[in-house]
Every structure is written in C-alpha cells, then in structure tokens.
From TrEMBL:
Name of the molecule in the record: Methyltransferase domain-containing protein
Domain Methyltransferase span(s) in chain numbering: 43-134
CDD domains linked to this entry: AdoMet_MTases
Signal sequence residues: none
Transmembrane segments: none
Organism in which the protein naturally occurs: Streptomyces hydrogenans
Pfam family, one: Methyltransf_25
Top-level lineage group: Bacteria
InterPro entries assigned to the protein according to its UniProt record, in alphabetical order: Methyltransf_25, SAM-dependent_MTases_sf
Amino acid sequence: MSGTGNLLTDRPELYEERFPDPERLAARWAEATLRRYGSGHRVLDLGCGTGRDAAWLHRAGRRVTAVDTSAAMLAHARRHHPGPDYRHADMRDADLGRVFDAVLCLDSALLHCHTNPELAAALAVCARHLAPGGLLVAELRNGAFLLGDGSLLDGPATATFRRGSTTYTSRTTLRVDHGAQLLRRHRAWTADDGSPPHEEHTAWRLLFPQELRYFLAVAGFEVLALHDGPGPRTEPPWREGDRPGTTLRADRLHLVARLAPRPHHDGDTTP
Ligand SMILES: C[S@@+](CC[C@H](N)C(=O)[O-])C[C@H]1O[C@@H](n2cnc3c(N)ncnc32)[C@H](O)[C@@H]1O
C-alpha cells in the first residue's frame, strides 16, 4: 500500500469514522485552553491529521497554519476542512519562517517522535515557531498510566465500525517495548467488501510526566499545567467550563507550557 502504511492515516475519512468528534470537543478544549492562558490568535497545529480541529479554530477566529507528514491527511483536510493554511512539513525539522502565539499538538501526535533526539528536535521546532511567551498546548498518552494499570495491554481487542455498506474490523494487540519506551501496536484490519486484509505496526513513545518536564525545560519552556484531565479524550470527557485537573494517573496528559521570554542558550539544563 502507498502512503504511511497506517490504514486510518492513509484513509482519513475512515479516521473520522473510527474516531468521531461530532461536537469538536478536541478543538473546543484547545480553544478554551488558549483563552484561559491568554493566547494571541496565531496558531500552528503540528500533526493536524484530518484538519477538523484546525478548521474549527479557524472558524472561531484563529489564524491557523496546520502541518502534517501525511499527503492523504493534507488532501482530505484541504477538501473537507478548508480555512487553515495546510502545509506538508515534519514536526522534527519544520521551518515555516514565521512565528505563532501558540503551537498545538493533539491526540499524541508528539509521540510519533520515538527517540530522545527526535523529541528534542520537535520541541526545538515548537520553540522556534513561537513568539516569546508563546504557548505549547499538547494532549497525549500518559506513559505513567501503564505503571499502575496494565489493562491497555489486555488483548487482543476487537473493534468494528461501518462506513457506507462496508464493515471494518480491527484486531489490536498492544505491547510495551521497555528498552525503547515505546508502546507498540500490531493491528490487523479486515473489511467485508472483499478488500484484502491489512496489517500494520505503529508505535508511540511512552513519555513520563517528569521526563516530559525535563525535555521542556531543556527546550526553554516553563510548564504552566500538566494533568490527566478532564480533556477531550478522557472519561468523563471535558465540558465547557471545566477547570484543569491536578492528578497524573490516567491515560492522557494535558500540557500547557510557555516559551521562556529569553532564549535558553546558557547551557544550564537544570529543570
Ligand atoms: C493520531 S493523528 C492526530 C491528528 C490530529 N492532531 C487529531 O487530533 O485528530 C497523528 C497525526 O500526526 C501525523 N504525524 C506523524 N508524525 C509526524 C511528524 N513527524 N510530523 C508531522 N506530523 C506527523 C500523522 O500523519 C497523523 O496525521
């Protein structure tokens, strides 16, 4: 198969079917977070996927640039979620030549950076694209969740969804690669439309809260909030008016960090 080899990334219409967000909770949470911390209107969405959040923020009055490495995602975004300035760029080395008031990185997009150098590079990209005092707002899986709750690793888990007259079934097995600190996923897809079965291997970095704080400090960020919810993908989900939480036990991390006003080039990496 061409593209990334990940079915839902290569078929964005299926991504939206599998992970519906009809109320645009993710975008609303991002907007509420930007307002709570007084962000300006220029927003960069890193790993924007289908573009549904970027477009909602655009309609809410933000000036949004959105980047992704998937050509299929960008084509879908331009067609179905117009408004933002969509660019093909990699969060590990993007250089858009301008700065923003906030960088968003939602639904674990940051965790596609698997190694320490990749993570450091992505955070350097965030810093390079922020005006002094700009905000990084991210929402991602919490590596620490797996310390106390291994239920994610029970499996395999089967899920089905329909699009048109086709039923898609996925059988997913997750395992932890302890040495690399990666959550590795094997997923086998079948569909009842006669298309051949499809297998994919995906991985996410398992980032722990203190480790994330360290990476952020080295990149010149001050952490304003880091908590496990409520957020757009927590149970129960975030609702308008909810305040940020204070615990870090559950599956999702919600991060707000501010770029320090002065460049952080004094060699001091003390977090
Ligand atoms: C789980 S999706 C999240 C999409 C979107 N942020 C959302 O919340 O719906 C992760 C996205 O990150 C993109 N991605 C993965 N690695 C990337 C990289 N190095 N630079 C930019 N985008 C990347 C993928 O193509 C995919 O669209």
